[in-house]
Amino acid sequence: MGASVSQVRRFLSPVMAHLPPRVRLMLRGALADARGLPRRFTDPQRRRDPWQTLHNDGSNADFHTSGAMVLKELIDIWGMKATDRVLDIGCGNGRIARPAATFLSSGRYTGFDIAAGAIRACRTQHAGDGRFAFHHLDVRNTEYNPGGRLSDAELTFPCEDGQIDFLFAISVFTHLTPEASDRYLAECARSLAPGGRAFITILLLNEPRRAGIADGQSRFALHPWRDAAMVADPASPEQCIAHDESVVRERLTSLGLKVDGLIRGQWCPPTTSEGHMHDVLLLSRS
Ligand SMILES: C[S@@+](CC[C@H](N)C(=O)[O-])C[C@H]1O[C@@H](n2cnc3c(N)ncnc32)[C@H](O)[C@@H]1O
């Protein structure tokens, strides 16, 4: 089953590149669902996993295991606590919210996403659990929500100032334009309580990375775009965006967010990570 699905995927790849993002994501999701069927039927814990055909959050057939792994990293690497007030930016189908339900004690968990179907899946999963709240924000994104009414460069996160102890954004800044990224970082700074921490995955460009991309060593074929950013597909930039590291660092400093750590992911050498594909920024609010 696994081999035949990957053969189908290889065959379809060039065709997929020309499809509208929504159709492409749906088809990839359908392939992931097909691959996950045997596990879904044999493992009772996976029976209620969301269908990637409805909202493809990139977790493929491994929603359950990968969510638990990411949560463990948030706890082990950056000290998320069971009592924290948590914000999950671009929470998708609730891959991390699900294992968090058994981790959080008195903590609270707020998630938001621009995909209505994803938020429906999260609400169904956590119905009746007062610690969890999920918000749909109808924000435009060429990849995930082309018809959205709001601009991501003007968005306000669904939380009060300084009320979040721990926030994270997994594979979200890779879909944000430079203006949206600026806005989201400002919203992170506004939302975090003094001493609060943030775990953000992102693709950061510096000189060695740009050289690696030019040499064909990057996992993503990226092309120069604007504001020193690079994108996989200039016709649909929000499919995959890499940001200039010095621009991001300046922005963080101006917002009072301290970079306590930077794990350089495996997407392009040089890397300091054995497990992360994207770069990881570990931030704290002074
Ligand atoms: C690759 S998925 C990752 C989902 C989730 N963070 C996870 O790790 O399972 C990217 C998610 O970001 C969401 N997204 C894209 N643009 C966004 C934006 N401007 N604001 C919030 N979420 C966004 C998409 O709808 C999608 O659910």
Topology:
Elements lengths: L1 H15 L4 H22 L20 H16 L6 E5 L7 H7 L4 E6 L2 H10 L6 E5 L27 E6 L8 H14 E11 L1 E2 L1 H8 L8 E2 L5 E2 L9 E4 H10 L2 E7 L15 E7 L1
Parallel strand pairs: 1-2, 1-4, 2-3, 4-5, 6-9
Antiparallel strand pairs: 5-11, 7-8, 8-9, 10-11
Helix pairs in contact: 1-2, 3-4
The structure holds S-adenosylmethionine (SAM).
The site of S-adenosylmethionine has 22 residues, from loops.
Describe this structure in words.
With about 290 residues, this protein is of the alpha/beta class. The termini are far apart. The protein has 2 domains: about 1-60, no CATH class; about 65-285, 3-Layer(aba) Sandwich (Rossmann fold). Helix content is about 35%, strand content about 20%. The strands form 2 sheets. Strands 3-2-1-4-5-11-10 form a 7-stranded mixed β-sheet, with helices on both faces. It is globular, with a radius of gyration of 18 Å. The longest helix has 22 residues, at about 20-40. Bound molecules: S-adenosylmethionine (SAM). S-adenosylmethionine (SAM) binds near residues 59, 89, 95, 141 and 171.
Gist of the model:
The chain is an alpha/beta fold and 286 residues long. It has eight helices and eleven strands.
Order of helices and strands: HHHEHEHEEHEEHEEEHEE
CATH overall fold name of the largest domain: Rossmann fold
> What is the CATH domain class of the largest domain?
Alpha Beta
Count of distinct strands = 11
Helical content, roughly? 25-40%
> Count of helices?
8
